[in-house]
Amino acid sequence: MYQALIFDLDGLLIDSETIYRKITYQMAEDLGKTVSDDIWAKQMGRSPLESLTIFRKELGINQFTAQELVDQRNVLMLEAFQNELQIMPGAMEIIHAFHGKMRMAIATGAPRELMEEAISRLGLSGYFECMLPSDDLKAGKPDPEIYLSTIKALGLSPEECIVLEDSSNGALAGHRAGCYVIAVPSIFTEDQDFSFANYVAEDLFDAKVLIEELN
Q1: How much is the pTM?
Q2: Cα separation of 105 and 110, whole Å?
């Protein structure tokens, strides 16, 4: 029934949310501001520009534009990726389990530069048929654009695709695209709303078992 797995990247396959959170909170502190958990939740899953637009508006930052904040964060993130980035538990297991059996893609809110750095550094190249970053999107998650674009690139229908997401915004995007959605909350997203997901997994190992049962 299901032909493809479409993975989010940040917080699902790679432990980047820890890095994003640290850098975002540090950027705020450097500007004399404080990021609340509510603001952080609003930013998660969105495109970089949307995320930093929320950050700028909520914190009342006037000395930098949202794009300037994006550029600053990208520099810090790229440096951190080169030194601190790790793969999430169960990520290689689920990728290896379905490689060659189901088509696989990545649909991420990350910019291309960070996506490619992560994929290369963690040895994930070659597993995914297509990888869509946020660079050319008109709207980030929870808008379904990135998933609809990925589905189109695969030449499939939404009903043939399973989306795996760690954030409410991302899971909602997959749901709105018409896919079967497996939410895999992290420690940063476990309190978010996943009521619209088809299944909420304990981790990627749990998600792997479910996918095997579905097919």
Answers
A1: 0.88
A2: 14
